[in-house]
Design a protein that fits this description.
Largest sheet: none
Order of helices and strands: HHHHHHHH
Helix content: over 70%
Radius of gyration: 18 Å
Distance between the termini: 46 Å
Number of strands: 0
Structural class: mainly alpha
């Protein structure tokens, strides 16, 4: 293998590992905000992370993003308490991971199409378009995949579907609105422009979010959170 090819392969692997770990970390902190009885998170920061890395790295991070989402599902939500629960849980986790991955790349595609690639998001119209297509529209995908799968696997009843879907969608939209700009300020290629935003906005918001997660985690008894699919 030529040195350049080897270097590119190593870089490709490192990027995907970083994306997988990043999604897992942001998703984990999102679970700390979950509250009973629905175990829904009011903010799902991992959706914002997924959109940001899809915008910056494109299709190169497909494996890392999918693996990160699936690992989070397995670690936090899948039910392995009984042998009969393993297969339905894995199927649900796989479809939920597929939906979340498709959502991120749909959002990236729509943003690139309607805002332009690597847009600095200075104009109000572009900022509005960014959040409409990257948040409100693209975030229809993951809850639709996830809730449909959960319903047909028998985890929820038909009466639970509307509120479950809406809760999932809102969590993803808020995650995109808050965390996509934060992650972009850290990894976007327009370093000069995003550097100022990093100092003024990103660092304070990240600190506030982690403090909130810490507070909710110590206020909640882990025994009150049985393993379940996020919705």
């Amino acid at each position: 293998m030529k040195p350049n090819n080897l270097s590119n392969s190593i870089r490709y692997i490192n990027i995907n590992l970083a994306v997988a770990c990043g999604y897992f970390i942001f998703g984990y902190f999102g679970t700390l905000l979950a509250t009973p009885p629905s175990h829904a998170s009011p903010v799902w920061p991992a959706s914002g992370f997924a959109l940001a890395v899809a915008l910056v790295y494109g299709k190169r991070i497909v494996p890392g993003l999918f693996i990160g989402i699936l690992l989070l599902q397995i670690y936090s939500f899948l039910d392995f308490s009984l042998p009969d629960n393993i297969l339905p849980s894995l199927i649900t986790g796989a479809f939920s991971s597929l939906g979340s991955s498709l959502q991120a790349f749909l959002g990236a595609y729509l943003i690139n199409h309607y805002c332009g690639k690597q847009n600095p998001l200075i104009e109000d119209k572009k900022i509005f378009t960014f959040f409409v297509f990257g948040g409100f529209i693209s975030c229809l995908v993951a809850p639709t995949f996830g809730i449909t799968t959960i319903y047909f696997q028998g985890f929820i009843t038909i009466d639970d579907v509307p509120i479950s879907w809406l809760t999932w969608w809102i969590g993803d939209v808020i995650g995109v609105i808050i965390f996509t700009p934060i992650i972009l300020s850290l990894i976007a290629k327009s370093a000069t422009l995003w550097k100022e935003r990093r100092k003024l906005v990103s660092y304070p918001l990240i600190c506030a979010f982690f403090i909130s997660c810490w507070y909710f985690s110590i206020q909640s008894n882990p025994r009150n959170f049985p393993n379940s699919i996020r919705f």
